[in-house]
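Usage

Read records sequentially. Each one opens with the input sequence:
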Amino acid sequence: MAQPLSANNPASAIPAKKFRFSNHLLFIVVSVACCVCVVIVAVQKRQDRRQALQRKYHDDGADIRLADWSDEIIELTTWTPREFGIDRIIKEAPNLRVLRIQRNCDDAILEQITHLKHLEVLKFRDDLAVFSDRQVKVTDEGLAHVAKLESLKVLEISDCGAITDAGMSYLSTMANLETLDMPYSAIGDEGVAHLSKIPRLKTLVMNGTRMTDKSLEFLRSTKTLRTVWVGPAVTKPAIEKFKKETSVLGVR
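and closes with the structure output:
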């Protein structure tokens, strides 16, 4: 005679286990589907915002490149800040993290940029400056504005002869700055002394500047430093000594 199913019979627990497993699997599938939907909606919103921003600027004749995946990166190629107005970027892209300007930047533009509180990378470089008079017109006063960007990690200002040692005193207060690229400026040993106080500095590009062997002595105290590009006045013996006595990986 067949034994009736009961609570003490293991066979009676099989349907219940299958039911619980099915519910658990269904919960996982629904959860994953919800997460995917949330991600899709977020990506679509960001994509729509990026395209709207790009269309708006292009309608005004500006050449602005935005990264395909984000509206937090903007590269201005043929745009002149005074002609277009950087206040519009501040309004439309308040979470901007990367900004590159290739033409006609000056201290007034830097003062406006201080409103971009999330900015991490700021680059001013005119690739055609050596063939024209379009060099970056930033002075020490402009660097005082840059120093207010507390989230900034990378600063690149190339071919700017108006930047001197005095401006470096402002940058020395930037707690999060990791990369400083300022070739072909009027910075010398006194300026490097200020820069050696930046607590997280890892890369320092100073080729074409007035720094000498004395600058390397100042940089000995910068324990986070890993790469240095030096000026033409720095001698090979000083470079070799610096490499042997510090943890810097590359001196060029």
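Summary fields computed downstream for this record:
- Confidence is low (pLDDT under 50) at residues 56-70, 128-134.
- The chain has nine helices and nine strands.
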